[in-house]
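Hello forum,

I keep getting stuck at the same step: I have a sequence, I want structure tokens, and every attempt I make locally crashes halfway through. Rather than fight my setup again tonight, could one of you with a working pipeline run this one for me? It's a single chain of 267 residues.
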Amino acid sequence: MKLTITFCLVPVFAAILLAQGPPGGGRDFGPRGFAGRGAGILGAGPGSRTPVTGAPYSATETLQRQQTLSNGNQISTKEQSNVYRDSQGRIRTEETVTPPASSGKTAYTMVTIFDPVGGYRYVLNSSTMVAYQSPLPPARPASTGSTSRPAPPARPNETTASLGTQTVNGVSATGTQLTETIPAGAIGNAQAIQVVRTSWVSTELKVPVQIKTTDPRYGNTDMELTNVVQAEPNSSLFVVPAGYTTQQGGGPGGGPRGNARRGPGPR
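Reply #2:
Ran it on my machine without issues. Output:
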């Protein structure tokens, strides 16, 4: 079985580039391994909680999935969203959600606002005029001197290679290739499995503009951040619109990606 995924950036804590690995194995670089869109949304590092300030932009994030079955049949999906970040590090993501045709529901737009200045995340439900508010985790202080945490030990089955700097999707980006080998028997596999992930992170914006992964378990993945405009978005995009009622809690669906997929009804 082969799976191809192309991510659209952003929105979402997509911030976690490396998810927990399968039982007995290493990190999971397959579909769930990106754990949300906007990988690196609060900084380029995995799990980073420090907002990127002074680097505003808007862009389009695209995520495609293609699964090739053993009989040659293919299952393809595509998701697209818009992402905006201002100079203060506030982020707005917009994704059009298209329910299954059998549901009888029309497509709607899911809006999520990350506000590290105020310390909250908002999920907007335009059908009910409700903004679901939930606190963001605190930013991690910059490590300095003797207080800095030691680098995690290298995983024995992983190798990392620097790919230098080049222009990717119209912006200067630094590339890294991570290769993980899952030994035979580690997760019940008869033979060793090799997973390769190539990521390009914008040197100015500090967000990934492209992530390509090859994984025999899931297939290939390809995240693309395109139509990048490095300018200050309108400040109105990062506040709850007038007329909305604010309620505590993340709203139906839980996390950022979950809200997009299982959030409140049509907007």
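Residues 92 and 237 are 7 Å apart (CA to CA). If your local run keeps crashing, start a new thread with the error log.
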